Amino acid sequence: MFGLKEDWSLDAPPRYFTLEDYTGNEARWCPGCGGHSVLGVVQRICRDKQLPPEKTVSVSGIGCSSRFPHYMATYGFHGLHGRALPIACGIKSRRPDLNVWVSSGDGDCFSIGAGHWVHAIRYNMDMVLMVFDNAIYGLTKAQTSPTTHQGTKTNTHPLGAPLPSINPLTVTLGVSNVSFVAQTVDWNVPHLYATLKTAYEHKGFSFVRILQRCPQFSEHTYEEYKKDASRLKLLKHEKGIQLDDKITARFPVQHEHDPSDKAKALTLANDLDPIPIGLLYWDPDAPSYSDFTRLGLEMPVDKKIAALNDALDHFAI
Amino acid sequence: MNTACPGKKSVDEYIVEIVSDAGEGAQKAGQIFGAVSAKMGNGVWTVEIIPAEIKPPARSPAGASGIRVRVGADAITNMGDEANLVVAFNEQVLFGRIANGAYSPGTIILLENKWRNDPDKEIVQQYLNAVEGFTEQGFIVHELAMEEACMAITPTPAVGKNMFVLGILCHLLNRDLDKAAHEIQAIFKRKGEATVALNEQLVRAGCEFAATQLTFNFDIQPLSNDRSLIVTNGNQALGLGVMASGMELVSMYPITPATSASHYIASVFPSVGGCVHQAEDEIAAIGFAIGASYAGKTACTITSGPGLALKTEFLGLAVMTEIPLVICLVQRGGPSTGLPTKVEQSDLLASLFGATGDTPKIILAAATIEECFHFVVTARKLAEQFRTPVILLTDANLATGVQPYPRPQICEEWLAPPIDQSKWDPSIPAYNWDEKTGLSQRPIPGQEGGEYVVTGLSHTDRSKVAYDPASHQKGCAMRSRKIAVLQSTLKPPEIFGEKTGDLLIIGWGSTKGSIEEAVQRAQKEEIKVSAVHLRFLSPLEPGLKKIFAGFKQLITIEINYTDEIEQPYINEESQRYAQLALLLRARTLMDIDSWSHVFGQPIQPGAIYREICRRLGNDHSGSGLTDNNSGE
Question: What is the SS3 string spanning B98-134?
Fold first, then answer.
């Protein structure tokens, strides 16, 4: 990163950021909430990538996950329920220089914001979407979410959620121009880190579903998966998420998967037990809508004025 | 080259309409006629007659598609009253127009006569009955073999007949055919030289046809104006204003009648370095614009009624988080899907109060097509300076009306300055409210030291979430204060007419031309009536109470619904006033009545004139005018 150069001069950057530079308000999620590990990981990635805090924007909707920006010391936008993605895409449209991280939840993204989710995938603008999927509405206290398992009792369905849950991975993979689909879990921090870092490095829209524990309302949902690592299927590939061998060894079920194979990715996405974690799909060549929205960014004022006068000439009498 | 004929009559103004089935090109012909007239130096107002469907059934009274062009020796500010002459491609499309009061006894109808020999007996009968009925109503019908004459030139007269009609009108109003040819070249050059030549030939043929078939024509003196002018419709003016104000991003979702503004912008924007984003829905459209604006880039969203309804949650967020944003609202008839292609001014209260909670914002309304341009520039600056959303109201009447006006002199100051990326002093809060004015400057992402988290939750000046009573009270007060500060910088509106009198008409938006024409007509008859026209609706322009005090009666005239006192159950307590009247009553505690129509049409000067006479008990209304707004 920096150090002594060949001529013995010191290659020190004018600014070096530490974790503190990304640490905002004290996180007020419940103890044991998966949000804490995601926050720590994102702060570490920011530090490891030395992202200037002023060039980094954390965008969110509404819900437990969407408190995320308040806990970062970067720029942040805590917006409306379900509407983080239009804001994030708008920011990115004319400011490609900003690093954009979006935090959303299973209700925020897959329910009220579902329309934006589908279109943001297709726009493929360079940002990371982290969906904190705890399969329940937390902030409003235990209502059924689109990913609540069928039969789970909630405050809105005391007899049990009546329908099978939505599969966010297959939906995402089904959208044209999808470019990065990964799944990880909040309780395996090295995998979480490696996944989000790879997502950040991808130049396009990175969809990362994070299976997350909610100790308050849906502890049971992932409890078995947490206790028994064989309920997870680790996806491995040279183009996939790179893990330390020691970490890899902790997963009894491993599966070699080429993330450029969308058909296989869809088959894997339909596997619910064991749950696949890792990079399901990656297409670094998918076109980005940013290439369209950023057109004309550097146009000088005199050229604009000349073009405006040409436009007026067209109507002149 | 003029096609003057001896015995021509000089007139101050003339109103023509072309009506047809949809897709027959009546609007194109009328637009060229309007442009030629404007280029000859005449005052012009054109208004499109649009069916709600793209392809309504042929020969149906409700399917009338067309255009009205009012040409004058003087400046023309509205569509006027009854047309002097109409060219109709079939007789059925005239029925809807007649029901709308578009014509009066004496109106000349030039009617395509091919239906007289139609193989379908029923159509022949409909045609004969209609011609008889029109004559009985006092219209002067000229049955003309227009299509047959076109066939001598083109095997597909259905496509070219509109240009032939343009030629007829050029003869009747003595228009410069070279100017018409110039317009045709500009419009059809993409389709190739053969198309241009054919259309020019059709225009000249129409002109000669009229000279041999009709014995009348008219001359209208041009305005003496040496200023350079441009001719646009209101949505083009709006689009030009958006670009001239330095907006970099227009984020929209297709909705009538707003969309043509975005079409126009999209056609020019790449050359000015901007981008039109067609979002996945109305909500995303405003969210995207807010995102860009938050990041320091000037952005706007353009919409109509139902679109505004969907945007209100984001609108509230922009107010709460003090993010500058311009929302152009091209109003149409409501509620709900309402009258998508027709005019109404019924989104004033939705703009003011549509968002939940206390959401003070700036609202401007353009009264002319020229103002559609300049008000965007103003709105962009106000949004930045007052760190708030600004809603700019226009309507379908302005959007599709076409008028010449002085060419704006583009200046660099109008364009948004480059974004500030200098260091921000971290001791300055993100909402560094001036206690007195509520104004503050915002940090832009990229500014080191300014990092803050925007939140729609109640917050402190450092944008920290705060549920305590004092913080919420203060935030509300600061956001509200800005509106009062803006009011303190405004001038009272100008009074059109004397400062005192029997009646004051208060208007807003596109009704200005009609109101002032009617008021002027009444003033000439010594009726003591004046008018004021409001451009700012939030805050209201100052000094209104003082102005209102000079008049015995006060009414608003606006195109949104108001109960009429004679109707069942409607009395002083139950009566619902038109929207501006309701607002002004609340703001002034004065007895302000309203008079309005919601026929989906602009209110015409004749109707306003008659209302003035009725209110003041003058019997001037018998001057040969019929009620144009009698509806269907």
Answer: HHCCCEEEEEEEEEECHHHHCCCHHHHHHHHHHHHHH
Backbone phi and psi for residue A59, each to the nearest 5 degrees, phi listed first: -115, 145
What digits encode the pLDDT tens for the residues B519-577?
999 999 999 999 999 999 999 999 999 999 999 999 999 999 999 988 999 999 999 99
Per the prediction, chain A carries an average pLDDT of 95
Residue B175: both structure tokens together:
């228009």
Residue B510, SS3? helix
CB contact under 8 A, A297 and B243: no
Tell me, what CATH number does A205's domain have? 3.40.50.970
Helix (H, G, I), strand (E, B) or coil at A10: strand
Q: Judge whether B3 lies within some domain.
A: no
Are residues B522 and B502 part of one domain?
yes
Residues B15 and B120 in one domain: yes
Closest CA to A303 of B266, B271, B245: B271
CA distance A303 to B27: 34
Q: How many CB pairs under 8 A join A and B?
A: 194
A86: which chain B residues are within 8 Å (Cβ-Cβ)?
Answer: 279, 283-288, 290-291
Residues of chain A with pLDDT under 70: 1-3
Contact B77, B29 (CB under 8 A): no
How is B17-82 classified by DSSP, letter by letter? EEEESTTSSHHHHHHHHHHHHHHTT-EEEEEEE--SSSSPPTT-GGG-EEEEEEEESS---S--SS
Pick from B71, B76, B66: nearest CA to B102:
B66
Task: Give backbone dihedrals phi and psi of B555, rounded to 5 degrees, phi first.
Answer: -135, 150
**pLDDT tens, residue by residue, B460-517:** 999 999 999 999 999 999 999 999 999 999 999 999 999 999 999 999 999 999 999 9
**A317 with B251: Cβ contact below 8 A:** no
In the stretch 281-310 of chain A, residues with CB closer than 8 A to chain B read 292-299, 301, 303-305, 307-310
How far, in Å, CA of A43 to CA of A19, rounded?
A: 6
Phi, psi of B114 (to 5 degrees): -65, -20
pLDDT digits (tens, 9 = 90+) for A190-199: 999 999 999 9
Q: Does A25 touch chain B (CB under 8 A)?
A: yes
- Tokens representing B298 are 């000037």
Output the domain CATH number for residue B584. Answer: 3.40.50.920
Give residue B169's Cα distance to chain centre. Answer: 25
Q: Please give the mean pLDDT across all residues of chain B.
A: 93
Mean pLDDT of the region B275-283: 98
Q: Report the alpha-carbon distance of residue A117 to residue B361 in Å, rounded.
A: 30
- Write the DSSP string, B538-586: ETBPTTHHHHHTTEEEEEEEESS----TTSTT--TTTPPPPHHHHHHHH
DSSP 8-state code for residue B271: H
Report the number of distinct structural domains present in chain A.
Answer: 1
Question: Domain count of chain B?
Answer: 4
> Helix or strand or coil: residue B221?
coil
B68 in a domain, yes or no? yes
Domain residues for the domain of A284 are 14-288
Asked whether the beta carbons of residue B272 and residue A311 sit closer than 8 angstroms, the reply is yes
